[in-house]
Amino acid sequence: MASVHSTAIVSAGARLAPDVTVGAFSLIGDDVEIGSATRIASHVVVAPRTRIGRRNRIFQFASVGEIPQDRKYGGEPTGTSIGDDNVIREFVTIHAGTAQDRGTTSIGHRNLLLAYTHVAHDCLIGDDTTFSNNAQLAGHVVVGDFAVLGGFVGVHQFCRIGEHAMVAAGSIVLQDVPPFVTAAGYPAKPRGINSEGLRRREFSAEDLAAIRRAYKALYRAKLPLEEARRAIAAVAQSAPAVKPMSDFLATTGRGIIR
Q: Is the pLDDT reported for residue 1 higher than 90?
């Protein structure tokens, strides 16, 4: 049986794995599922229709799965899905999806969300990302695997942050940031590739060289965007490490930072 503090309130309709712990004064809503070995600290709210996987740690005063801050929301039964091995620190807010989009806000595995991070409705976050303190996502944002957002970063609704990208502290993202790119400023502009992050993830010297060639085609060769896309697709034919960038550019969004 789950270990629930005597002052916590857990809805009869919630389903908690036997080794879940729930701290003092926390509130677990109806139709909530919490997986094995997840630890919920004190004063945490987990709203209805939230799915939380295994071995997550949610710190005090976090709010997970609450209804979206969206004027279009009319009480539809939308939800929130969180994978395994995530760390959600103090005062993080994660809101449920809307019927106008996927209906679910989704967070993958092994993500680190530092204090005061906000994940708005319908966001889709991959695996192994890092959100520094006060990183803020508007609605419908997509964040790829291993992306890093610095402190006080703000991301406009419907933007995409590609995998292995890094957005420097205090930046405001108004358009898509392609994979592997470091962005900084207000509005955020490209500042090179995320070389240090890629080395830490054991990208080879050959992969790094190919990614640099792709970056130069996109940002330094002064090519029209369509020509740059074709050049990067050609690089990806012989260098599979570049394929995430090629695929990202093939999908239209808000336009990329340039």
A: no
The catalytic residue among 29, 139, 144, 150 is 139
Q: Is 204 exposed, middle or buried (CB count within 10 Å of its CB: 0-12, 13-18, 19+)?
A: exposed
Strand order in the sheet with 124-125: 15-16, 33-34, 50-52, 79-82, 104-107, 124-125, 142-143, 160-161
Active site residue 122: yes
Closest CA to 27 of 52, 3, 48, 1: 48
- What does the buried/exposed string (b/e) look like for 110-143 if buried means 16 or more CB atoms within 10 Å of the residue's CB? bbbbbbbbbbbbbbbbbbbbbbbbbbbbbbbbbb
219, 258 contact by CB (below 8 A): yes
Residue with tokens 């808000």, as numbered in its chain: 254
Q: Which two tokens stand for residue 168?
A: 């420097």
Cα(65)–Cα(121) distance, integer angstroms: 9
**Domain with residues 3-140, CATH architecture:** 3 Solenoid (2.160)
CATH code matching the domain that covers 198-250, chosen among 1.20.81, 3.90.550, 2.40.10, 1.20.1180: 1.20.1180
Bridge-based pairing state of the strands 104-107 and 136-137: unpaired
Q: 209: how many CB neighbours lie within 10 A of its CB? A: 13
Task: Please confirm, yes or no, whether 150 is among the known catalytic residues.
Answer: no
pTM of the predicted model, to two decimals? 0.96
Cis peptide before 224 (omega within 30 of 0): no
Domain with CATH 1.20.1180 in the chain: 198-250
Written as six digits, the tokens of 13 are 């309709």
Reported as a single tens digit per residue, the pLDDT across 76-103 is: 999 999 999 999 999 999 999 999 999 9
Annotated catalytic residue, options 84, 101, 122, 176: 122
